[in-house]
Amino acid sequence: MNYTNITKSLQGHPRILFTLKEIEDTKKLVFNQVQNKKIQFNKIAAQIYKQADSFVTEEKFYVHYPSIQVNLTIELPLEQLKPVPDPDGYLDFPFWTMYSRAIEERVKILSYSYGMTKKEKYAKKIKEYLLALSKFERWFEFPHRGAEGNLSNAHFTLAVSIGYDAIYHTLTKSEKKIIQEAVLNKGLSPFEIDFQNEDNHNIIVSKKVAMLVGSVAIMDVVDVEKYYWDSYTYLSRYLDNRLTSPEIEGLLYTNVAARHVLMSADIFHRATGHSTLIEHQYFESFLPDLFFYMLCNNYKEVSFANFSDSFYHLDLTYMMAMLAYKNRNPVASWYVHQFTDADPDILMHMRDVIPPIAPDQYYKQCSKVFPSIGWAAFRSGWQSDDHLLAFTSSASAKDHNHFDQNNFILNIAGEWLLTNPGYQDYVEGPRREFTLGTIGHNSMLINGKGQTRRGRGKITDWYTSEHIDFLNADATRAYSNISLWERKVIHIDKTYFIMLDHVIKVKADDKITFVYHSTSRMNDGLEDKNPGDEFLSNKINIKGEHSEVSLYTIYPTVTNKRVGIHPGAEEYGSCLQIEPIGNSLEQYFVCLFQPKGSKQLFGNDYNYNVTKNAEQLELEIYRPDQNITDYLLVTINSIKLKNKKCEVEIPLKN
User: Fold this and answer.
1) Residue 476 to residues 251, 390, 563, Cα–Cα distance (Å)
2) Domain limits of the chain?
């Protein structure tokens, strides 16, 4: 894609947030409210203008850092933030990341409001920010590190590029030159530290995005060819790599990176007319599929699998608005209508509305495996009473990953009953040990110790169908003290799960412990159990507010089961610890999970018979609520399921 041709095809200003035509299209959405009663575009517009008005008149604003309980007061007119002392336990704490994001947000809202209304007060405030930022000594926080590992440089570059483009025609020639030089020298030039850096880390992604947007903002008057080519090449390769790379840092950072890449792809398309980035297969299928298969909702609250450094609740408004508008994704439109219909990002990034389609009407299969990243979602559907078992055995070993291979979590009817701690604590101590280490995940300990290496997990075999879903995962290489650990998960008839663990130990007397975490009550059918209590029954109930799961330990018939808790990390709940008894080098452990939503809470217990020999495992499981008996045969060559509804055989990779 020739640089000269790109500059020749460049649209005039504005071209970053919107074109003149898109402004008119958005005005039609606002004034022709009858076309969409669910999304109140006129109310969203009023909300945006109200926020812009508050930004015009504010004399100070506050930046909150919840992880360290610090609030910064930012006085206006804006001046470069003076160094802030590191909080206890941190070195080079990135105060400027949230600081720069707060400024970017203000410039973006003001720029949008100016584009829609042409009110002088908005342009005046934007200019104040742009000229103030242009006077900063630098746009990165730590002089000794330059732009290395720094996000503020990206946020400031985006803020100034957006504001400059929005009020371009109100600026004098000298003001334009000041801002152009700031974008070039304070924004783009420090990014040279990452030239030809192919790392897919979210910080690098953000800087490459800012590099492309900054280039597009000023390329008609400044020679930015080297920045354009480096960023465009990186982003093209990044999107290609996302389809095959094993690297993932959890959904939080996937969303962060995707938001920025979507932004650059959208702006590049708008400014140049070239759609190579925005129409990439990653945006068409992989990205939306990942989030929708890892989504749980009860139509009142939406949550997601929180593997690695992530949270149950994520702000996906921008992503979903963009995928609905730019990629015509009907499930993204459903998400917008269902959960984010009043968010300003909807109006700012959707210029028309496509008919929404719910996931269970759109996707042909309820379950899906993402083998490249080592994730899987076995689910019964997307309705309010459905369940999801999300599983990870990943090769990804980035800093935001945990020591958690062959780990899973379980959601039933919108409640997370088997849980992960989510985002790791970065301060040394028991909370960090728990949130980062194997001890805090639904995985396996050897002699009380967990995995010693990040990543190194792999889903080696998988199968999904209407009546049976299956995966086999190997986490052996994540440990330094086992010869083999494979975990098989079998989801039968969208109803229940069989989990089979196969372990070959280094020493016969090594002790295996499987841990299952929950913030809900654990019960043996008679009473709730507290930390330190033991279970004598082979059936354990984990009870939420309106759902529960029954865990049956079906092989071996005798195990040690107790409730534990990690001292210093009590806020994350308790865990069920199960130890198979035996001193052989090779051990098997099989359990059954029976999810119960509100409609199945009073369902009868399952009955089962198990036969295990060296060659195979035979299971006979009776489901009384459906009057169905499942015959399951697991061998080294295949898995066979037979009941009155189906007969399926899955060949296995040896």
Assistant:
1) 25, 20, 26
2) 3-356, 364-651
- C-alpha 619/C-alpha 213 separation (Å) is 58
pLDDT of the residue at 498: 98
CB 449 within 8 A of CB 481: yes
Least confident of 156-160, 295-299, 364-368, 500-504: 295-299
Backbone conformation region of residue 341, classed left if phi is above 0, alpha if psi is from -120 to 50, else beta:
alpha
pLDDT tens readout for residues 438-479:
999 999 999 999 999 999 999 999 999 999 999 999 999 999
Distance, CA of 311 to CA of 305 (rounded, Å): 8
Q: Could you report the per-residue pLDDT of 512-522, keeping only the tens digit for each? A: 999 999 999 99
Q: DSSP secondary structure string, 171-215?
A: S-HHHHHHHHHHIIIIIIGGGGGGTT-----HHHHHHHHHHHHHH
Q: Residue 346: pLDDT band by 50, 70, 90 thresholds?
A: confident
pLDDT category, 89, cuts 50, 70, 90?
A: confident
Q: Residue 328: count other Cβ atoms within 10 Å of its Cβ.
A: 12
Quick check: 191 and 227 in contact, CB under 8 A? yes
Planar angle of CA 292, 295, 297, nearest 5 degrees? 125
CB-CB neighbours of 124 under 10 Å? 14
Characterize 330-352 residue by residue with b for buried, 16 or more Cβ atoms within 10 angstroms of its Cβ, and e for exposed.
Answer: bbbbbbbbebbbebbbbbbbbbe
Cβ(375)–Cβ(294) under 8 Å? Answer: yes
How many helices and strands in the chain, by DSSP H and E?
Answer: 17, 27
- CA dist 482 and 99 (Å) reads 46
The answer to whether the Cα torsion of 110, 116, 117, 118 is positive or negative is: positive
Q: Report yes or no: 303 and 265 within 8 Å, Cβ to Cβ.
A: no
| Phi, psi torsion values for 316, nearest 5 degrees | -105, 15
CB-CB contact of 213 with 158 (8 Å): yes
Beta strand pairing call for 468-474 and 496-505: unpaired
What CATH number should be reported for the domain whose range is 364-651?
2.70.98.70
Predicted local distance difference test score (pLDDT) of residue 654: 62
Which CATH architecture best describes the domain 3-356? Alpha/alpha barrel (1.50)
**Residue 93 and residue 69: Cα distance in Å, rounded?**
13
Confidence band (pLDDT; 50, 70, 90) for 148?
confident
CB under 8 Å to 137, separation ≥6 — which residues? 80
Cα 428 from chain centroid (whole Å): 25
The Cα 407–Cα 160 span in angstroms is 43
Residue ranges in 58-184 assigned as alpha helix (H): 95-117, 120-135, 152-166, 173-182
Mean pLDDT of the chain: 94
The dihedrals phi and psi of 89, each to the nearest 5 degrees, come to 90, 0
Alpha-carbon gap, residue 374 to 386, rounded angstroms: 23
pTM for the whole thing? 0.90
User: Residue 299 is encoded by which pair of tokens?
Assistant: 């139509």
Burial 636-654 (b: 16+ CB within 10 A, else e): eeebbbebeeeebebebee
